Amino acid sequence: MTLSTRHQRQRGFTLLEVLVALVIVGTALGASLRAVGSLTQNSDGLRSAMMATWSAENHLVRLRLAKTFPQTGKRSEDCPQGDLKLICEEEVVATPNPRMRQVRVNVYDAQYPARRIVRLVLLAFND
């Protein structure tokens, strides 16, 4: 065997080297796909939270614009925002000061009513 023949055999990659390279590339691709999926899921969650906050704020603004002192108790109503079907639950609680009430607005996803997305609180005063 001459020196030039030995160098010709060593130019290519072995099967083991190719398999190791494929495993490394596959692992990197898998991690990338998981990261993209996680970003998409987080984006959907942030969008839901933003839309739910808008619904709760709209509910509280309507209460302020009505300029009536809210009665204690719980009430629920649909409060869709965009393509999301949301439920706004208003809870009015008496405070030690009889001229003041605490209004809590919880917003739930209509598809998963046990999951509260956002809660906003307002103090209402009797003028």
From TrEMBL:
Q: Which domain of life is it from?
A: Bacteria
- Membrane association type: Single-pass membrane protein
Compartments it resides in: Cell inner membrane
Q: Where does the UniProt entry say this protein principally localizes?
A: membrane
PTM notes: Cleaved by prepilin peptidase.
Q: Which UniProt keywords apply?
A: Cell inner membrane, Cell membrane, Membrane, Methylation, Transmembrane, Transmembrane helix
Check the record and name the InterPro entries matching this protein: N_methyl_site, Pilin-like, T2SS_GspI_C, T2SS_protein-GspI
GO CC annotation: plasma membrane; type II protein secretion system complex
Job description of the protein: Component of the type II secretion system required for the energy-dependent secretion of extracellular factors such as proteases and toxins from the periplasm.
Q: Self-association or partners: how does it assemble?
A: Type II secretion is composed of four main components: the outer membrane complex, the inner membrane complex, the cytoplasmic secretion ATPase and the periplasm-spanning pseudopilus.
Name of the protein in its database record? Type II secretion system protein I
